[in-house]
Amino acid sequence: MLTKVERFTVKIRLCVGRGIGPLTIAPVAFTVLTIFSADLSTAQNRGEDPSKLYSPEELAKWEAGTEPGYKSYDYYDMVMRKNVPQYHINANVTGGSEKTNYYLSVAHTGQDAMMRDFKYERTNLQLNIDTKITDRFTIGAQISGKYEKTEDVGLPGGDGYYSAILSMFKMQPIESPYANDNPPS
């Protein structure tokens, strides 16, 4: 009895991508001068004298930002990074014969976040195989899996990333982020 020898084909593909990703829509935090300008406009619209809120000398001190007690803080610039690295790598093998086909893929994605101490990584695995037993009967299997790892500073209340962004915009730009205005060494 002669047995027919099946011929297998194999194709291997490797894709690697690397880039830098900024926020798609970057929110803008208010500065001290923006807030004071809004206060002055509000007073004027109410028919009040805006010069009673802030003197020109006081506004000049805030604008210079060099005297103690007259500093403005840009929390967005302190917390957010301009661009962050991201990468994706995918390797797959596909092939088969007259009766059997298979596909195996492994992919890994990694991305830092706009804020330090946040990171996301994911690895995917997929395997498909099918074999033609007879002309009318085929058997196959599909297996897939995913492993995710997220690094988060763990702020209370659930989503630390959203909480940190929200905190940036809740802080007044005249409030120092450091106790006694002493930055960390």
- Arithmetic mean pLDDT: 86
What strand line-up does the widest sheet have?
A: 1-2-3-4-5
DSSP E strands, number: 5
Largest sheet: 5 strands, antiparallel
Strands, helices and their partners?
Layout: E1 9-21, H1 32-45, H2 56-64, H3 75-79, E2 84-96, E3 100-112, E4 119-134, E5 137-151, H4 160-170
Antiparallel strand pairs: 1-2, 2-3, 3-4, 4-5
What does this structure look like?
The structure is a single chain. The chain has 185 residues and is α+β, with helices and mostly antiparallel strands. It has helices at 32-45, 56-64, 75-79, 160-170, and strands at 9-21, 84-96, 100-112, 119-134, 137-151. Helices cover 21% and strands 38% of the residues. The chain has a 5-stranded antiparallel β-sheet, with no helix packed on it. The longest helix is centred in the first third of the chain and has 14 residues, at 32-45. The model has no long low-confidence stretch (mean pLDDT 86).
Give the key terms.
alpha+beta, five-stranded antiparallel beta sheet, 185 residues
At a glance:
The chain is 21% helix and 38% strand.
